[in-house]
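FW: tagging you since you asked about this chain on Friday. Here's the raw sequence from the shared folder, copied in full. Didn't touch anything.
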Amino acid sequence: MENRNLKKLLGLGLTTGLILAACGNGGDTEESSAGSEESTSTDDFSIVMVTDIGGVDDGSFNQSAWEGMQAWGEEHSKEENNGFAYIQSNEDSEFVPNLNQALNADFDLIYGIGYKLKPAMEDVASSNPDQHFVIIDDVIEADNVASVLFKDHEAAFLAGVAAASTTQTDRVGFVGGQESAVIDRFEAGFLAGVYAVNPDITVDVEYAGSFGDAAKGKQLAAAMYSNGADIIYHASGDTGNGVFTEAKDRMNANPDDQIWVIGVDRDQTDEGNYDGGNLTLTSTLKGVGQVVQDISNESMEGNFKGGEVSNFGLAEEGVDLTEGNLSEDVWTVVEDYRQQIIDGEIEVPENPADVKAE
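HL: got it, structure written out here
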C-alpha cells in the first residue's frame, strides 16, 4: 500500500517545516503567511483526521469518519487536500508523529478517530492548548478537546436480536478487534440481545487482537462457521474484511448452506456481495460521519465545544441497525426492542461480565 500520509500532505503543498496559509487555532505559529494574527475565516477553515489502524478504506469505522469529512467538504465546496485531509496510521507508534504532523500543518481542527489515539492526543493537546482537537470513542478532559462517545451497546443489542431471530443453528459468533471498553460495549450488547430472544443460543466470542488483521479475522470466522455458527457479528474494523471473505468463500462453495455476517459502524451491504447474492444480514450503524460533519460546522462558526462530552445512542439517532436482509417478521421484532430501549424499558449492559443468559 502506498504511503497515504505523504500523499495527503504533499497534496496540501507541504514539506517539512512549512505550513498552510490559514493559521486559525492551529499550532504555535503566530502569523499566517499573509502576516495576519486574526482568526481563520470560514472560507479558510481546515480540518484533518488522524486515523486509527486500518485506513479510510476499511469499510467500517475510519471510512465512516472520512465519508463525513468528504460530505463536509462538499457542503462547503472544498476540495480534498484544500480544506480537509487525512493522515493514515499504520501502527500505534505513528499516532503522536501524525498528530504533530497535523499540528505543524496548521489545521484548525484535528480529529483522532478511535479510542487508541487517546494517550497520544492527551500528550499533544496538553502541549498545545490553543489548538482544537476532537477524540472519537473516548474522553479527554481538556478545554481544547471535544469528546464524542456512542452507545454502541444499544445498536449491538439490536444486532443480537436480529441474529437470534434469524439463526437456524442456534449458534452465532462475535469477532472483536482488540479488547477494550469500547469493544466490550459491542460484545455486551450483542450477547444481551441474543439472550433476550433466546437464552439457549450459543454465542462464540473471539478477539483478533487487532483492527487491521484480515487474515486473523478469516481464521476466526472459519472456526466459528465450522463449529456450527451461521451468523457472525464483527466489531473489528479492517479485520472484519476477513470475516466477510471467509463467509463469501463458503457461500460460493456451498450456496445451499446459508451463512451470514453482521456488519459494523456503517452499512456493509457491499462487503457481503458474492456470486450468488448477498450475505450481509444487517449492519449496526454508528454516526461518526455525521458527527464529524456537525462538529466541523459548529467549530467553523466559532462554536467549538471544548471540554464537553457528547454521547449518542438510539434516542439521539447516533446509532442504529439497517434492515438489510432481515425478514419482515424479524424487522418487526427489532423495531419493538428498539422502542423499548428508547423508552427506557430496557437498559443495555456495557460490560460482558454483566450479561447472563436467563
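FW: The first strand starts at residue 47 and ends at 53.
HL: agreed, and The domain at 4-150+288-312 is CATH 3.40.50.2300 (Rossmann fold).
FW: great, closing this out.
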